[in-house]
Amino acid sequence: RKEVEQDPGPFNVPEGATVAFNCTYSNSASQSFFWYRQDCRKEPKLLMSVYSSGNEDGRFTAQLNRASQYISLLIRDSKLSDSATYLCVVNALTNDYKLSFGAGTTVTVRA
Amino acid sequence: SAVISQKPSRDICQRGTSLTIQCQVDSQVTMMFWYRQQPGQSLTLIATANQGSEATYESGFVIDKFPISRPNLTFSTLTVSNMSPEDSSIYLCSVEDSLNYGYTFGSGTRLTVV
User: Which chain B positions have a beta carbon within 8 Å of A86's beta carbon?
Assistant: First the structure.
């Protein structure tokens, strides 16, 4: 079983729509969670960290469910510029810098 | 956040040759990480590079194939040795970004081995 699993998509949504997707992780000891955005042929860039209480950054909302071992990302009022691959990233231990990456969820926002 | 300059951005190499990739960070960092991202795949950690000690390699990666240097706290190199077409991939360096509580990546090196 992979450490981090994501629905690869693609999610094709119209501008203005809401899109949400999840990521599951296998290690219950995981401590840190992140969503990264990767555009085609570019490096991953941190979108947001995910906190236990959930957090929001503009149109983006991230949630963590430790009991079910998943995190989610919701994008409201989608823009064309939101088209990208979203990587779920998990760090197992606070004193271990190794990250586990999901394979990514592709989102395409159409006009 | 930290700014990383990674070179080269891309290269096409003959099999059997070696390529050295460089990453320069604009601030001092304890650890630098080297990843590989094969087409359509996610990132896989190759090794962790600490200044003043040998790099720590992940399962499936060995020093003879991927030698790493870390001469100071702002610089590291990864060499892909004796390349084969299977080494064609994107290679990325990364550092922890203490300000944003995340990790920053270099722009990547797109390697094609022919």
Answer: none
